[in-house]
Design a protein that fits this description.
By secondary structure, the protein is an alpha/beta fold. The chain has six domains: 81 residues; 137 residues, von Willebrand factor, type A domain (Rossmann fold, 3-Layer(aba) Sandwich), CATH 3.40.50.410; 92 residues, Immunoglobulins (Immunoglobulin-like, Sandwich), CATH 2.60.40; 192 residues, Class I glutamine amidotransferase (GATase) domain (Rossmann fold, 3-Layer(aba) Sandwich); 166 residues, von Willebrand factor, type A domain (Rossmann fold, 3-Layer(aba) Sandwich); 79 residues, Sandwich (Immunoglobulin-like), CATH 2.60.40.10. Helices cover 22% and strands 33% of the residues. The chain is built from 17 helices and 43 strands. An eight-stranded mixed β-sheet has the order 15-14-16-17-33-32-31-28. Strands 22-21-20-23-24-25 form a six-stranded mixed β-sheet, with helices on both faces. Strands 3, 4, 5, 6 and 42 form a five-stranded mixed β-sheet that branches. Helix 4 links the parallel strand 5 and strand 6.
Length: 818
């Protein structure tokens, strides 16, 4: 025996009170009876229980009353289950009807109810008479409980209602977004001939298909274009002749979906003036285009973008920092990139070997021609006395070699210093070979070594020269005066004048000349003898890129998968008026190429998390004049942009579950920069119910709300401070009519159910008629409540005392009083 409230025993001494109160004469028997009554009351208040073992087996009979069950099959099953209940002698049996106006609403709820009616650890079995059709497939959790307890389920298959054409499935096949074509599939069951299927939303007919014939089952695909973001209730209505449909009440299937807002498109353009508006008109309302300054804060401008359009933007207007921010957005955040061609884009725009070129699906194959830039060379030769002998001859040879590298469009001048300075040959075209050679030949050694005036003379002489490069070449034996050379040479370098030095002769006075070359941003050469004459580098040839913009009338060929071209005639591409010649990268995919040269016109590929597409013509320029007269240009461009944009911008992935009135939500961060979540429920009448999220683990947040279980509820969620929020509609059960619109192909497999739980298929063809077997534990532990018995004993003792006091005194004393 166990007591639920043992503290009551502290009052046990009160049971002895009748022996001491009230005072006066009293019978010992009456005191004992009263004490026993008090003791029984105290024991009853302590709630005593006795643990026993339940050996009987309980049978739960579940009968599917939903409207999808054939009426005759339902009546037969009821009689079968009632007879089974009456014959069950192993314990209690209970018949439960579900799926109708009373009892559990769904099959899963009925299974949970039956499992709960069998005591924990007890023995029992469940007989389930159903057709297996239900609009809520939440059976797995309930069946797991049966498997864990070893309770068998014995199904009795029932026939479903026949000859009832109706929609049983409404599936969204594509992303629902404003302004973009959405695809839905409606599943119909028959039979029916010459029916009409209509799809409605917000009171408008969105799509329709006439003259439908359904023998047993058919899937119909419809397309429409959502016009507003937010929840949208779709209604698929099957219009059938009355003679072919005896139950027209189930011919409309509704489902509430969530329509996303237009794609956010960041537009970067410059050369194509007012190119944003024509592009927006071409692609339609499914894209929200807003301009971003390519020379501003590009990273901030792309923060909310799903797609970036670079339209005929030259690289000089798109700094390297902005290009690198765009590349990071594509690779790391999955932002789509659509690059248009034109005279100011791709190779003509200067993107050759730029950060943007590295992520393009085409190679910028612009041909180049080499050009030799113009140069002015001033040769300063030391003709002091220390340069006597072979040194001055070596200096002349070095000067001749340097001048020989010049072209006719270059210029040259010669300054000699020998204590004073003078122009041996003023600056003149390098084509005056005879004059320059005579000036060199006249040079001879003699005088002092004062180099500073000669360098200053060269500096001033180069001020009025307009060539690409300016170079001063100093030839000396190194024995020069000290002075403020460094400031002068650094100033010359800042002005674009390079100073190189040549140490002539075997002497080791080279440290100062090395410093001069460093200050002047030139080079140092050593010429110890005539066998080591240097090749003085004065300039480097440059390359000029040739134009690659092609104009004309170019025939095109469509490539790529059929799925991409669905709904667009790939053989009707107009002639293209202009494009940029490029070459495909090996891993890229061609969608449109020119027929003659196979140059890519529309190409795409994946880069990191994002997609990049290149259109080598200009959507709003002269290159597509013929295309803008083609009705398919806008839909094609809209499809390209939609397929290039990033798949989803949700910072958090949502898991939602409805449990009666309670709505449980779990958000998982999809990236490290998701931040904290915020959200709300939209319930009846558009009322917002804020949600408070609690972080259970890093990146894992939970919240709960409440909503009418019979109505759909919309969940909006996202990162704090970010708009727009993502959305999803949580479907509610529709009532009795919903089972008629459940897909029979997704009915519960009753044979598999029996095998899983250890039961047997009963009744019908191939089933058994034997008594159902039971399973479970050895027996349920049952607690017997003894409190009522103690209360009864106290009541009997109390009544006995009352009766004893009401008897005549003579009777109580056992005689008469005279």
């Amino acid at each position: 025996m166990q007591f639920a409230h043992p503290l009551v025993f502290w009052f046990l001494p009160l049971a002895a009170l009748p022996f001491f109160w009230p005072r006066g004469r009293g019978s010992l028997k009456r005191s004992v009876g009263r004490s026993a009554a008090l003791l029984a009351c105290l024991l009853a208040l302590a709630t005593p229980t006795w643990k026993g073992q339940e050996t009987s087996a309980k049978l739960i009979l579940l009968l599917d009353e939903s409207p999808s069950v054939d009426a005759a099959a339902f009546s037969s099953a009821r009689r079968t289950l009632e007879g089974m209940r009456d014959r069950w002698d192993a314990g209690p049996a209970e018949l439960v009807e579900w799926g109708g106006r009373r009892g559990p609403a769904t099959l899963a709820a009925a299974l949970r109810l039956a499992e709960g009616r069998i005591p924990e650890g007890g023995r029992g079995a469940v007989v389930l008479a159903t057709d297996g059709v239900d609009d809520e497939a939440g059976w797995s959790e309930a069946l797991a409980r049966y498997e864990a307890r070893g309770l068998p389920i014995h199904p009795i298959p029932l026939a479903s209602r026949k000859n009832d054409p109706r929609p049983v499935g409404l599936e969204v096949l594509s992303e629902l977004r404003v302004g973009q074509r959405a695809t839905v599939a409606v599943t119909l069951v028959g039979p029916v001939d010459a029916a009409t299927l209509e799809l409605e939303g917000r009171g408008n007919r969105l799509a329709a298909m006439k003259s439908l014939s359904v023998e047993d089952r058919r899937r119909v695909v419809l397309e429409f274009e959502p016009s507003e973001p937010g929840p949208l209730t779709l209604s698929a209505r099957l219009l059938v002749k009355k003679s072919e449909d005896p139950w027209p009440a189930d011919n409309t299937l509704t489902r509430t979906v969530f329509v996303k807002p237009p794609l956010d498109v960041a537009y970067l353009g410059w050369r194509m003036e007012k190119g944003l508006e024509p592009l927006a008109r071409l692609v339609g309302p499914g894209f929200h285009l807003h301009a971003v300054d390519p020379e501003g804060d590009v990273e901030t401008g792309l923060r909310s973008a799903d797609l970036v359009v670079v339209d005929d933007l030259p690289s000089r207007r798109f700094p390297i920092a902005g290009q690198e921010a765009l590349v990071r957005a594509v690779k790391e955040r999955g932002v789509g990139l659509f690059v248009c061609g034109g005279r100011g884009s791709l190779a003509p725009g200067g993107y050759f070997k730029s950060p943007l070129e590295d992520i393009l699906p085409v190679e910028l194959t612009q041909k180049e021609e080499k050009r030799d830039p113009s140069t002015t060379l001033v040769v300063i030769i030391d003709t002091s006395g220390s340069m006597g002998g072979t040194r001055v001859q070596l200096a002349k040879e070095v000067a001749r070699l340097a001048i020989r590298r010049l072209l006719p469009h270059d210029k040259v001048g010669i300054v000699e210093f020998y204590g004073a300075k003078r122009w041996a040959a003023p600056i003149q075209p390098a084509s005056n070979v005879i004059e320059i050679q005579r000036a060199i030949n006249r040079l001879d050694a003699g005088g002092g070594t004062v180099i500073m005036p000669a360098i200053e003379e060269a500096y001033y002489g180069l001020q009025n020269v307009n060539t690409r490069y300016k170079h001063v070449l100093v030839l000396t034996d190194g024995g020069v005066e000290s002075g403020a050379f460094e400031p002068l040479l650094r100033k010359m370098a800042e002005k674009g004048i390079n100073v190189s030095t040549v140490l002539v002769g075997p002497e080791a006075h080279s440290e100062f000349l090395v410093n001069m070359a460093n200050w002047g941003k030139g080079r140092f050469y050593a010429v110890p003898n005539r066998f080591n004459l240097p090749e003085v580098i004065l300039k480097r040839p440059t390359s000029a890129r040739l134009p690659v913009w092609k104009t004309g009338a170019f025939a095109l060929r469509a490539e790529g998968p059929e799925l991409f071209w669905r709904g667009i005639d790939r053989n009707a591409l107009p002639l293209l008026d202009g494009y940029l010649a490029t070459r495909m990268r090996p891993a890229a995919e061609n969608l449109i190429v020119t027929r003659a040269s196979s140059h890519p016109v529309l190409a795409r590929w994946q880069v990191g998390l994002g997609r990049v597409t290149v259109f080598t013509s200009e959507p709003a320029g002269k290159g597509t004049d013929s295309w803008r007269k083609w009705s398919g240009f806008g839909p094609l461009l809209a499809r390209v942009l939609a397929r290039t944009a990033r798949d989803a911008r949700d910072d958090f992935a949502l898991e939602a579950r409805r449990e009666g009135r309670r709505v449980r939500l779990v958000l998982r961060a999809t990236g490290s920069a998701a931040g904290l979540p915020a959200g709300y429920l939209v319930t009846n009448g558009g009322k917002r119910q804020p949600l408070s999220f609690i972080e259970r683990a890093p990146g894992l947040f939970e919240a709960a709300g409440f909503a009418d279980p019979a109505r759909d509820v919309t969940v909006r969620w996202g990162a704090v401070g970010k708009e727009p929020l993502s959305g999803r509609v949580l479907r509610a059960r529709r009532g009795r009519i919903s089972d008629l619109q459940a897909d029979p192909a997704r009915a519960l497999d009753l044979a598999a159910l029996a095998r899983t739980t250890g039961g047997r298929v009963m009744g019908g063809r191939g089933g058994t008629t034997a008594s159902p077997s039971v399973g479970g534990g050895a027996g349920a532990t049952r607690l017997h409540d003894l409190a009522p018995w103690f209360y009864l004993a106290a009541l009997v003792l109390f009544l006995g005392d009352v009766i004893a006091r009401r008897l005549p005194r003579s009777r109580r004393l056992g005689g008469t009083v005279s």
